[in-house]
Amino acid sequence: RFGRPATEIITERLPVTIELALMALLFxxxxxxxxxxxxxxxxxxxxxxLTMIGANxxxxxxxxxLGLLLAYTFAVVLKDTPFALPPSGRLxxxxxxxxxxxxxxxxxxxxxxxxxxxxxxxxxVVCGILTLNFELTRDALKHLILPMxxxxxxxxxxxxxxxxxxxxxxxSLDYMRTARAKGLSExxxxxxxxxxxxxxxxxxxxxxxxxxxxxxAILTETIFGLTGVGKTLYDAIxxxxxxxVQAFTLVIAVVFVMANLIVDVSYAVLDPxxxxx
Length: 277
Description:
- It is a single chain.
- The chain is mainly alpha-helical.
- It has helices at 6-41, 46-60, 63-77, 100-103, 112-121, 124-130, 134-171, 174-181, 186-197, 199-224, 229-238, 242-270, 272-276.
- Helix 1 packs across helix 7, helix 6 crosses helix 7 and helix 7 packs antiparallel against helix 10.
- The longest helix is centred in the middle third of the chain and has 38 residues, at 134-171.
- The radius of gyration is 21 Å and the shape is globular.
- The mean pLDDT is 86.
């Protein structure tokens, strides 16, 4: 349909999805683990109840419903207020997009690294940071907030529930009572002992969520007008562009396998018992 090699289309569209997925995963991980730890520490309290109700609601709302609600709320209801957010696009029209090789004085460099730098240039948040163009970074982040929240809410709820479950299991073990009996502060007991030993199932679920983020990006990119892997794959399926569908399916599969490989390797780093065995 495009009359171009599928690899060119991938290098153009993949940075959009990677940037969105990583931001959504970062959002889900930070808030999910925080809420899970708070809920486990104050288990069976009103805080725990409210957190788990919020997590169940987050899991239950489809991406396309949440995305439309967010766009309507922050682009229509809150229009012309300090809380207004752009409902579509990646940058404000007219915003200049620098090229990392040119800013770094590598415009004549033709090695393999140039292709990687050009790839990073299409990830506007990363590009703004590497080129010290903080206006570009701020504008790109502002446009990413709504799709990031829409895409990351379901993983956030799942991570919060898994964190709570893992923390409750660990906090009931004997060595937790021993740590308290030694006179350690609650902060050290929770984070140095309980959190470290509960990380394995949490890291596992975080790695598995990456596949959900890539699949959910199809709906999110369509709603928020982002031309990434999801939107391109959706258009390719509708137009029966099989070569593009096969190429993007292969890339998504490789990313998912690599993410799970990193999770498996991280077990040895997080738990010395696995490393020693």
